[in-house]
Amino acid sequence: MHLALTETQRQIQDAARAIAQERIAPLAARLDAHEGQAEYRENLQFLAQNGFVGLTIAPEFGGSAADSISLALVIEALGYACAATAVAISINNMVAEVIQAVGSDAQKQHVLPAICAGASGAFCLTEAAAGSDPAAMACRAENTAEGYVLNGSKIYITNGEFAEFLLVWAVTNPTAPKGKGISLFLIEKSQVNGITIERAEHKMGQIGSPTNTLHFTNCLVPHAALIGTENEGFRIAMEELAGGRIGIAALSLGIARAAMDVAKRYMNERQQFDHKLWDMQGLQWMVADRETEMEAARLLILQAAFLKDQRQPYAKAASMAKLYASEMAGRATDTALQLMGGAGYMKDYPLERYVRDARITRIYEGTSEIQRLIIARHTRNALESLL
Question: Which residues are catalytic?
Answer without folding.
Answer: 365
